[in-house]
Write a structure and sequence with these properties.
With 560 residues, the protein is of the alpha/beta class. The protein folds into two domains: 241 residues, P-loop containing nucleotide triphosphate hydrolases (Rossmann fold, 3-Layer(aba) Sandwich); 228 residues, Nucleotidyltransferase, domain 5. Helices cover 28% and strands 27% of the residues. Strands 1, 2, 3, 4, 5, 6, 7, 8, 12, 13 and 14 form an eleven-stranded mixed sheet that branches. The protein has a nine-stranded mixed sheet with strand order 15-26-19-18-17-22-23-25-24.
Length: 560
């Protein structure tokens, strides 16, 4: 918001900024959701140092490019709009990544630049979005360790780390767990006065919106009709009451325990460490004065059935790490997803039929999946094929529905890694139904499925789809092992052979560090002996469903 800073709108930031001035506090960690003022807090800390307590300062962002953008678009406008800061600014001596003031400088660097991180001593050290930092900066140690070494000569040094969390092993969540004092914000119920933490489980909406007959207008109504329910007095709390709750709220030390269902809960710490050197704060977006209870509910309902979207919701809105239900898929879990329909039969709820074909040197593997609303899928058929003629018969085959009707396969994706020219020729002779694909273990820009074209001149104009295989394997894993908030949406027919389950579960998710020190999670075979062809087929069938718009399918009664 433009104009002078007012902490009254975000009272939960007051203690954090006061502790930045506190002599005994040397390290502050902010594990925050979005729309809470985290970035503005860092800007205010910069302004305080310039105006009240000058000292050399280093601000570290994930990349040099982001550091440069922040300097131009955030820091310089802040300086120009504040007379106290502008009077101490030396624009002629300043550069984009090194801003000069009276009695101090502010350097901005990317975590990917080891020489800049280790080049100078600093009194103040601020890190933003630390969970996006590379694990190593070049061949050196972590960028956080490199930069922290620069503060040793200052007795009254300050370090601030801020980020939305990613995984439980991520930097900011570990900071929250391991700081000398960990705090969460408690607010009073306006009805009974009970101090409590705001949690997703207490956001409610009309029960009628959970019925199938009402789901067509649920999205809009949840936005307008949701409320927060006090877990003690069970009275309704509405958005108009939130600001007063925030004003009367307070940060309290907490510790993590497990409840009877083995879930993490945070309880108040009655004997916190006095005068801690490190303090960590965890705050979710439910507290934001710019976010309503209805917006949180709406975002939850939109994301809960998609593992990738739900991860973003957990990280960015709930300020909690994503803990995948399974780093290794379990064949027993697949066997438990059997449903009472026959092989080669399309369940009555299905609206789309897709196929994924893994092309080997001398044979093929295939999987046919049916898809319905809410990205629900059912295995229809799978197997090994020996010839292109057999592949063609799969594509042309009419499939029987539970009602006895016939449905044709709408889209087939074929892997073009082997026998590439043969795949191109086959797809060219089956236009609109069969398309070649190329897998990528790197995240595909903008979307996990990108449309391209075959580069070879003889196949000019033939569409080629680039598939983010890690994305779709994460998706399948999330469906096989749904969280408590997600219902099973991925099924196999009754009597499925365990061979299928074992191939689907032939890979596990592992962490790798690339040449630039960045950590990424990729899927790798569990052993060298278990084939993964059917998993590849399932990835392609899922990507084909994505292409067919499966995310936008609605139950028949919701289209009325």
């Amino acid at each position: 918001m433009p104009g002078p800073w007012k902490t009254s709108r975000t009272p939960y930031l007051r203690e954090i900024m006061n502790n930045f001035k506190c002599r005994h506090v040397r390290r502050i960690s902010l594990c925050f959701g979005t729309q809470l003022g985290k970035s503005e807090t860092l800007m205010n800390m910069i302004g305080y140092c310039v105006d009240e307590d000058p000292g050399s300062m280093l601000m570290v962002y994930p990349t040099d490019e982001l550091a440069r953008s922040i300097s131009k678009n955030r820091i310089e406008p802040m300086i120009r709009s504040c007379p106290a800061l502008e009077s101490k600014w030396n624009p002629t001596a300043s550069e984009t990544l090194e801003v000069q003031f009276s009695g101090m400088y502010l350097a901005l660097v990317g975590a990917n630049s080891p020489s800049k991180l280790a080049s100078r001593p600093v009194k103040y050290l601020l890190f933003d979005e630390v969970d996006k930092f590379p694990v190593r900066s070049g061949k050196d140690s972590s960028p956080i360790e490199l930069a922290s070494e620069r503060t040793k000569t200052f007795s009254h040094r300050k370090e601030v780390l801020a980020s939305t969390p990613t995984y439980s092993e991520g930097v900011i969540w570990q900071e929250f767990l391991n700081s000398q004092v960990s705090k969460r914000y408690f607010v009073p119920c306006p009805h009974c006065g009970t101090m409590q933490q705001l949690e997703l489980k207490n956001i409610k909406w009309p029960e009628e919106l959970n019925s199938d007959s009402q789901k067509h207008d649920r999205d809009a109504r949840v936005l307008l009709e949701s409320w927060y329910e006090c877990p003690v007095c069970h009275e309704q709390i509405h958005d108009i009451e939130k600001l007063q709750m925030l004003i009367r709220g307070e940060w309290r030390p907490v510790r993590m325990e497990r409840d009877s269902s083995n879930k993490n809960i945070w309880i108040e710490e009655k004997d916190p460490r006095p005068k801690p050197e490190s303090i960590a704060y965890n705050l979710n977006s439910i507290y934001s004065p710019w976010v309503t209870f209805g917006q949180v509910a709406q975002k939850f309902l939109r994301s809960k059935d998609d593992p990738i979207s739900f991860m973003n919701f957990m990280n960015g809105w709930l300020a909690l790490p994503w803990e995948p239900s399974a780093a290794t898929m379990n064949s027993d879990a697949v066997m438990k997803l059997q449903r009472p329909y026959e092989r080669m039969t399309v369940p009555k709820e299905a609206l789309i039929l897709t196929c994924g074909i893994d092309v080997q040197l001398d044979h093929f593997w295939y999987e046919v999946r049916a898809w319905g609303p809410r990205i629900t899928s059912w295995l229809v058929d799978y197997g090994r094929l020996e010839t292109w003629g057999e592949v063609e018969r799969i594509l042309d085959k009419p499939w029987r529905t539970e009602q006895g009707e016939e449905i044709l396969l709408q889209l087939a994706f074929l892997d073009s890694g082997f026998r590439t020219d043969e795949v191109y020729e086959f797809c060219a002779t089956h236009p609109g139904v069969a398309f070649p694909t190329k897998g990528s273990s790197q995240a595909v820009t903008r979307s996990p499925l990108q449309e391209s074209q075959v580069e070879k001149s003889e196949w000019g104009g033939l569409k080629l789809f680039i598939v983010d295989t890690n994305y779709y394997k994460n998706f399948i894993s999330g469906r096989i092992h749904p969280s408590d908030e997600m219902l099973p949406r991925w099924f196999v027919y009754e009597g499925i052979h365990r061979e299928y389950a074992e191939q689907i579960c032939s890979e596990h998710r592992v962490k790798e560090v690339d040449g630039k020190g960045r950590v990424k999670e990729v899927w790798k075979p569990v052993t060298e002996h278990t084939p993964n062809h059917l998993l590849d087929c399932s990835v392609l069938a899922t990507a084909a469903a994505e292409r067919m718009g499966v995310r936008y399918l609605m139950p028949p009664n919701e289209n009325q």
